[in-house]
Structures are given as structure tokens and as C-alpha cells.
Amino acid sequence: MKEIKEITKGKSSNYIIKFTDNATLKVNEDVLVRFRLLKGTRLDEKELEKIKTEADFQVGLQVALRYLSFQMRSEYELRTQLKNKEIQDIAKIIQRLKEMNLLNDENFAQSFVRTQKNTSDKGPQQIKHLLRQKGMDSQIIDVAMEEFPQEEQDLACAKLAQKLTKKYSNKSHREALQKIRLSLMNKGFYSNSVNFAMDELEFEEDEEQQFELLQKETEKLWHKHRNLEGYKKYMKVKQALYKKGFDLDAIDKAIDEVKLEDE
Fold first, then answer.
1. The listed CATH number (1.10.730.10, 1.10.10.10, 3.40.50.970, 1.10.1200.120) that belongs to domain 2-99
2. SS3 for 156-189, per residue?
3. What is the percent of the chain with per-residue pLDDT over 90, rounded to a whole number?
């Protein structure tokens, strides 16, 4: 038998029970009241084990509730958190939270998709990948993705494509278009959305600006390969500029100008 020597208030709604043999037990207010724990109460091993089990469950439940209070979580995320915290009775805690409607993977997945489509530039494939990382199965993911219908995917892709024109404005027009297309695909948009975005893109080629850019690139490459001679130097620079998407006739003109300045 163990006898309670004293009960002191701990943090939050927790209490520290100290027994006459100096052993201690942390319980919350609910356990304290339910088991009528008072100074002088004597407990046999069976009663004590029951109290410990319930106390551990309540501690674990509080850890879970704090974790969920910051944002919605998937069941997989919560299980991982509780394991890392070495919480016992995880299955029981999960079941209690589901009964309290605080843990629901279907609701979580739908909310996650809505948040991603409204606050990020991620395409549907990236969003699906993130959901799989959070432990969602394919059926839940398919239902959740209804929150991001095809029309909205197309518009989101087109908006991102237009935004990327500024990022690649220092590239040749052809290279810029290639990089925009590749970026959209890397963001997880499907090819039909990418094609729609590229068709809708307002990004006309400015010949004057393009030639100025070509001249800068030509001068840079001409200097880079200054140790090469004659035709070898000419071909090295021409090939590099062509890979960057510049027009061949314009390349020849730009190289001729640099050669004249170099003579």
C-alpha cells in the first residue's frame, strides 16, 4: 500500500502527488477528482496502476492537444509527434481525438489543398506529393484535390508563368520561354495546364532589347575565350550564344561588332 503524503499544484492543471515513501506521480485535475485523491489516501498496487495508466493517458492527450492547437495535423503527423515524445497509449489518444472531431484526415487534406492553392505557387503534383508525405492515402488525396479543379489549375499556372517573365527577362526570348515552361513543370503542373499558360503568356520579343542583351553576352564570351585564336574562338562563342537561344544572324552581327572593337 502507498499513502499520499502531500499534493502540490504543478504547471497548468497538473498536480504532483508525493507518497510517504517519497515516490511522486504527476496527474491532472481530472484524474485527481475522478479518483478522489486526497492527503492520507491509501492505494494498493492495483489502484495505483490504474491511476498511473489514466495519468499517462491524460498527459499524452494534453501533448496531442497542444500540438493540434497550432494548426491542423494529419493522423500520421500526430502519431510521429507522440512517438517522438515517448507517449504511451497512442492508439487510445488518437481514438479520443477522433471522437472529439479534432483529428480527421479527410478534412485535413481538403483544408491543406485549399491553403496551398491560395497561398503558394505549387501545382497539383507537388501538392499531392506533400499529402503523401503527411500519410494520406490515394483515395483521400483524390477527394481533396477536387478543391483544386482543372480550371483553377490552369489559371494558377498562367499566373505563375506571367510572374516568371520578370525572372528570366535577362535571357534570350527563346531561352526564357524554355525556362518558364520547365519551371512550371517543376512546380508540379500538368502538361495541359502548362500548354494553356504558355498560350496565354503575354511576353513579346523586344528585338532591340534582345540585341542589347546579345551584345553583352557576346562581349562577355569573347573576353572569356580571349586565349583562343581565329576561327576556333569564333565558333566557341557562336555555339555558346546559340545554346542561349539567340538568332544565328544576330549572333554573326554581334560577333562582327566585337571583332571590330577588338582589332
1. 1.10.10.10
2. HHHHHHHHHHHHCCCCCHHHHHHHHHHHHHHCCC
3. 55
Domain 105-147 has CATH 1.10.10.10: yes
Query: Is CATH 1.10.10.10 the right assignment for the domain spanning 207-262?
Result: yes
CA angle, 235 then 241 then 244, to 5°:
145
As given in the structure block, the three cell numbers for residue 147 are 478543391
Res 185 pLDDT > 90:
yes
Please identify, in words, the CATH class of the domain defined by 150-200: mainly alpha
Query: 8 forms bridges with which residues in the sheet?
Result: 16
pLDDT confidence tier of residue 205, bands split at 50, 70 and 90: low
Give the whole-angstrom CA distance, residue 235 versus residue 232.
Answer: 5
Q: What integer is the mean pLDDT of 114-138?
A: 97
CA atoms within 13 A on the CB side of 139: 1
C-alpha distances out from residue 64 to 50, 70, 78, 133, 152, Å: 21, 11, 7, 20, 35
Amino acid 222: pLDDT: 76
Closest CA to 198 of 162, 233, 171, 173: 162
Instruction: Indicate if 207-262 has the same CATH topology as 105-147.
Output: yes
Question: Residues in the chain, how many?
Answer: 263
Residues 34, 40, 41: CA angle, nearest 5 degrees: 35
Does the structure show a pLDDT above 60 at 263? no
Sign of the Cα torsion 153, 158, 159, 164 reads positive
